[in-house]
Write a structure and sequence with these properties.
By secondary structure, this protein is of the alpha/beta class. The chain is built from twelve helices and nine strands.
């Protein structure tokens, strides 16, 4: 009987994943539907420049057309609600770096017209905007970066700070007139790691109206590749205890379909430079190995004693509110 209740609740939820960087293809889109995923921020730029990112988006447009029975592109939060009604998954195009605008502010408006709605300010290292979390010296937000933040605010593009250095993150939180987010992070209080955020950092972004998406990327979890879906929910609880249940959501960082060459590319500066980190074995938490396992996350939340209202918020409603606030629609 309990399993029926869980599946009933999951089916009713608006489920939003704040970060997926999988090897996007029809099997992944089918798995999104299997998992009951309403919408996801799908990475289409990491180390790429303007031209390479345009190619990635061109491929996305073809994929969206070829898989229109499963997915469609999200431009507004109304599109997310439409995805739920139609039993499809809404694709939000997002970046994990600002390298695609190179040093040209005006490119932001072009990409916004193409549907890019979430942009991470830096990816692990220094760029035109500021410093990443693996940079040895975090010099903070550059003056160019301040212009980028202001333009993203004007256009309604969410500033993401997940891989951003602590000083640069603080500068963006203070400079932005819109709400900002760590779309996919974990608490350093459970595991010390350059990618994890301290209690003070989590409290600061929440106090300033920001948002925290909690990831389950195994190298950053307390138990690493031995973690289970219950350990993921424990990490969410830890963040909720600091920030409150209204500003916390899911940001899995699913890398489904990728192997060693991909991890080599993302763990070297600009894709090909110095080695920044070694993830070791990337084995997703037991019970939440694939995107199709999303119902197990709802079940784990129920098992931990979460109320249905908290589950609704964290699984999607909080993301929906954040995106509405930033996008303005």
């Amino acid at each position: 009987m309990e399993e029926d209740t869980v599946s009933d609740l999951h089916d009713k939820l608006i489920v939003i994943d704040g970060l997926i960087i999988s090897d996007f293809s029809r099997p992944v889109f089918e798995d999104m539907r299997k998992g009951g995923l309403t919408a996801a921020n799908c990475t289409c730029s990491v180390w790429e420049n303007f031209t390479e990112t345009m190619r990635n988006i061109a491929k996305w447009k073809k994929d969206l057309a070829a898989n229109a029975d499963l997915i469609f592109q999200v431009y507004t939060t109304a599109d997310i609600l439409k995805a739920k009604e139609e039993g499809k998954t809404g694709i939000i195009l997002g970046w994990q770096n600002t390298s695609a605008i190179e040093d040209r502010i005006e490119y932001l408006e072009l990409f916004h017209e193409l549907g890019v709605r979430i942009i991470q300010m830096t990816y692990n290292t220094q760029n035109w905007v500021g410093s990443g979390c693996y940079e040895s010296r975090d010099s903070g937000l550059s003056d160019f970066g301040r212009d980028v933040v202001a333009e993203m605010n004007r256009l309604g593009i969410l500033c993401d700070l997940s891989h951003v250095g602590p000083k640069t993150s603080e500068d963006v939180i203070l400079a932005s007139k819109q709400r900002v987010a760590y779309s996919h992070c974990l608490p350093a209080g459970l595991k010390a790691h350059p990618r994890n955020k301290s209690d003070a950092q989590l409290r600061f972004i929440a106090d300033k109206g920001g948002f925290i998406g909690v990831t389950m990327f195994p190298p950053f979890l307390k138990k690493g590749p031995e973690a289970t879906v219950a350990d993921y929910v424990e990490a969410m609880d830890y963040v909720i205890d600091i920030a409150g249940e209204d500003v916390v959501g899911v940001g899995t960082d699913f890398t489904q379909g990728y192997g060693k060459p991909f991890f080599d590319w993302i763990t070297h500066d600009k894709g090909f430079g110095r080695k920044l980190t070694d993830f070791g074995a990337v084995i997703n938490p037991e019970g939440f190995r694939e995107i199709g396992d999303f119902p197990n996350l709802t079940a784990a939340m129920e098992k931990r004693g979460w109320s249905s209202s908290r589950i609704e918020k964290v699984m999607g409603q909080n993301w929906l509110q954040l995106l509405k606030d930033v996008w303005g629609a």
